[in-house]
């Protein structure tokens, strides 16, 4: 990997444009600090971790590093276009009883922004090796590895190469897992989206954000107003928009690597579903999906079937979109803590008990349905997620644990629960519980 931190599309974005774009690393640092100080009440530290082999730097957040040293540390890996600031709602809870680390992926946030390889396999390896070099510098022996979106893809690739370092792999709404479906099975894409995709195909995914210059911050607010909603109970200004903008208005290093890894409309050139079986069978895997996300959770159940000799759990968080950790931080945190507790006891998580979850967490989405005089059952279609008919009740595990009379093939629809361990035999155009999926273009952030 070359050390030059340049934009692969430099001919479009000469250095003089930086003065036109209202961004800088200092502004990114300012927005990040405000987010962290607003949400994190525990003492935390941020620092650059130097990688001597590659001569890069990884921007790292640590919490509770010196406490609970007997607990396996938790490591958080963000997704495309993100950074450590987006985990702000999760950090206090997840670090309560163990060391927690979050870092900006190489090429993103405040980490070094090198030129990645144009070969997908090599670019993926460069991400993986940066994590391993970071782990070695941090002197972490083993870890619970949590990845979101692109971070989940990279975390899975890391687990393939360095399985001895991973105690449990948690994949939050992972990108890059399913194979690109045949044309007749693809979700219909509006003509206008296809036209835009054709025009911007030669460029990096967020090139428009940078090309817009002083109008760039306004584009983030206009097209992703939902990002602020995820943090609005604590931040009622433009800090989140500023953070996202400054994360992505810098040299698009990791973004260029992401473009190298994917093909049209965000499908991975090397889908993880074809390789996940090769992950050491001793590594438990937990999938956490948002019920409203554009990511199809069918792949999680496919992997559960393929890795039948290993622990694979799939949870769908009701009412959450692609950013499941920010949309529903409380149930997301509980799911991750459930994994951590199991790791501490050298075992795997117990099945989710839906009735107990319902007592702890309400379901605003379901309450809204009741007010409107409808229920989930009214909206469930024939393409709803089902327990696979070929599985027995014992094989279905937590899918049937709360309903002993439930038969294979019944729709799993615990109407008051935040979670649903359900299966899917086909790819629907809507999420579970009759919820509308997020718009496809939102996958970029």
Automatic annotation (TrEMBL):
Record domain AB hydrolase-1: where: 73-184
The EC number(s) this enzyme carries: 2.3.1.51
Protein's cellular compartments: Cytoplasm; Lipid droplet
Domain of life from the UniProt record: Eukaryota
Top-level enzyme category: transferase
Main location: cytoplasm
Ranges for region Disordered: 359-445
Catalysis: reaction(s): a 1-acyl-sn-glycero-3-phosphate + an acyl-CoA = a 1,2-diacyl-sn-glycero-3-phosphate + CoA; 1-octadecanoyl-sn-glycero-3-phosphate + (9Z)-octadecenoyl-CoA = 1-octadecanoyl-2-(9Z-octadecenoyl)-sn-glycero-3-phosphate + CoA; 1-(9Z-octadecenoyl)-sn-glycero-3-phosphate + (5Z,8Z,11Z,14Z)-eicosatetraenoyl-CoA = 1-(9Z)-octadecenoyl-2-(5Z,8Z,11Z,14Z)-eicosatetraenoyl-sn-glycero-3-phosphate + CoA; eicosanoyl-CoA + 1-(9Z-octadecenoyl)-sn-glycero-3-phosphate = 1-(9Z)-octadecenoyl-2-eicosanoyl-sn-glycero-3-phosphate + CoA
Polar residues bias (residue ranges): 414-430
Record GO cellular component, one term: mitochondrion
BP GO annotations: cell differentiation; fatty acid metabolic process; lipid homeostasis; phosphatidic acid biosynthetic process
Keyword terms: Acyltransferase, Cytoplasm, Differentiation, Fatty acid metabolism, Lipid biosynthesis, Lipid droplet, Lipid metabolism, Transferase
Biased composition (Basic and acidic residues): 367-394, 433-445
Spans traversing the lipid bilayer: none
SUPFAM superfamilies documented for this protein: alpha/beta-Hydrolases
A single MF term (Gene Ontology): 1-acylglycerol-3-phosphate O-acyltransferase activity
Role this protein plays: Coenzyme A-dependent lysophosphatidic acid acyltransferase that catalyzes the transfer of an acyl group on a lysophosphatidic acid. Functions preferentially with 1-oleoyl-lysophosphatidic acid followed by 1-palmitoyl-lysophosphatidic acid, 1-stearoyl-lysophosphatidic acid and 1-arachidonoyl-lysophosphatidic acid as lipid acceptor. Functions preferentially with arachidonoyl-CoA followed by oleoyl-CoA as acyl group donors. Functions in phosphatidic acid biosynthesis. May regulate the cellular storage of triacylglycerol through activation of the phospholipase PNPLA2.
Family: Belongs to the peptidase S33 family. ABHD4/ABHD5 subfamily.
PANTHER family in the cross-refs: PUMMELIG, ISOFORM A, RE40534P-RELATED
Protein name: 1-acylglycerol-3-phosphate O-acyltransferase ABHD5
Organism: Pinctada imbricata
Taxonomic placement: Eukaryota, Metazoa, Spiralia, Lophotrochozoa, Mollusca
